[in-house]
Input
Amino acid sequence: MMIYQPTVDSTDRVVWHGGESTQLHYEKLSHGKWLERDVQTLGSGLPSGMSEMQAEMVEYYQLSQLLEQERTKQLM
Output
């Protein structure tokens, strides 16, 4: 498993479960448990290296942040 979490106390993160999985999972911490909010499939398959995987995770994290902001606006 590989996790991208911008800070140690962040309440959201992106997770790749490893192996042959081509999916990234955006999760939020709620009441002490990580809950999945979205899933994205890596369009080009698995990156060839860990730095490429991290770049994919950071990009997906940023996109997920924008989507969460839009969801919040819609609820208002």
